[in-house]
Amino acid sequence: MAIHRTCDGVRRRDFLRAGALGLSGLSLASYLRMAEAGQVSSNAPAKAGIFIHLAGGPSHMDTFDLKPDAPAEYRGTFNPIKTNVSGVEISEHLPLLAKCADKFAILRGVSHTLGAHQLGTEYVNTGTRPLASLEYPGYGSVFTKETWEPSDLPPFVAIPNSSQRPGFLGVKYAPLNTNATPRPGAPFSVRGISLTGGLTVAEVEKRATLLKDLDTTFQGLEKDNQLLDGLDRFSEQAHAIITSKRAREAFDISQEAESFRKQFSDDPFAQSCLLATRLVEAGVGFVTMTLGGWDTHQDNFTNLKERRLPPLDQGLSALLNGLDEKGLLDSTAVFVTGEFGRTPKINSRSEEGGRDHYPRCMFMLMAGGGIRGGQVVGESDDKATMPKNEAISPDDAAATFYHALGIDHTKEYHTDTGRPITIVRDGNVIKELIS
Question: How far apart are CA 306 and CA 50, in angstroms?
Answer without folding.
Answer: 26
